[in-house]
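Page 47, continued from p. 46.
Same chain as before, 297 aa.
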Amino acid sequence: MLAAALALIGALVYGAADFLGGLAAKRLRSIVVTAVAAGAGLVILAAAAPFTVVSVSASDIAWGAMSGIVGFIALMLLYGCLAIGPMSILSPLTAVVSAIAPMLWGLLVDGDQLSPIAFVGLGLALVAVVLVGFVPGERVVRPSTRGLAMAVGAGLAIGGFLIVIDQTGPESGLVPLVANRATSVVVTGAIVAGLVVSATRRGRTAASALVSPPGPGGASRRVWMLAIGCGLLDAAANALLLFALREGQLSVVSALTALYPAGTILLAAFLLRERVAAVQWVGLALAVAAGGMLALA
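Result:
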């Protein structure tokens, strides 16, 4: 029950982080938002890690660093496929694959033992993922082969992140996530530095390389705070996910974590007054039902 609750709360926090990141990305480049968020997450996780660790091994740090690389690949593929579209197809496809990959790993490799009600809950969770992630109102367009490949790749990478971080030992506390964020900071920081150097060589200011679309003006303090808030929430969601994995089974946690679009949708509805489609409300109701079944299983 605790694992299911942590995973479901973590999914909502992930969605909230995506919401703030999406707002920040309206002015900053996506890679800049990712870099700032990684830095903010690194600070808070490094501060909390000493209070959670009992003992840590080199393999825990290695798995954490690997999860950072896999997570970065997942984000790049996710942003890429959503830019290609149509989001109404590729977004739920990514979420479903991200749930199925670690679910199968947990059942077939880790040997997760689930009750009949848990299997029903997993099925409901997968349906909920599709309905919650559906973007209504988009023109129906057949997705390209490239878009489908990137969506599947993003889902596999997100699932791979769950599988990799699940390999860390419970006594390592938050240290693997510190390694994760440190790796992300190095990779994204190098890319952002490259953008700045390229801009200055062309006679443009460094600030112009960070904003989207590129221009003479920089981003406001509010935009930077949104990116930092995204990083803090994302770090909290990762911590909840890690503790959920250590309390429960990978197959259950992965199915509930894939419901992360729910947090984004709810915040957009309450704060931006965006309309939530009936099909998405059905998905949210199924998500609650699935969470209850998996908690009781």
